[in-house]
Amino acid sequence: MAPLLMAVLASCAAAPENAPEAVPEPVASLADYTLAPGDRVRVTVWGQPDLTTEAELDAEGRIVMPLLGAVQAAGSTAGDLRTSIAGTLDARYLVDPKVAVEVVRYRPVFVLGSVERPGRYGYLQALDVRRAVALAGGYQGGGYRGDDAVPAVTILRDGAEGRREIAGRPDTTVLPGDVIEISRPAR
After folding, report:
1. Which of 9, 16, 93, 130 is at 20 to 30 A from 183, Cα to Cα?
2. For the segment 133-156, what is each residue's pLDDT rounded down to a tens digit?
């Protein structure tokens, strides 16, 4: 009975009533990354150097390829785009084409708010909020120390379901195109 009573009391004291409920963010991965305007891709058609191209997705999310013209790329993963291009080439021009799609440059991230140098920064592999803040020169005024309140982090992220806000932490994974807002810590 005593362990049950201790568990109930511990759960009652765990969080203040007005604190927002922490909802874990699913692990973000570049394997599931959907292309968007501003990304730059390289499409390689093996054995067909004239069909190999490198292009940035335009404002409508398209790239232009030899023979195929404008190809819709936004909203697709690199793998989906590869399958689509290979299927179109197979249906019209080549027998069993071997196609590879590689993201050469991802969209930038934006770090705004209470940082030394707010702005646009090139995306780097394995980027998290802590590293993004470092790119932006650190927290404004030297940041927080020990017992100071940790600055609130909000990430705006575009996805298949539209733009959403994510409550971030220093170890939250950042994806290309994210807008990271660092609020002043409450004192």
Report:
1. 16
2. 999 999 987 666 555 667 899 999
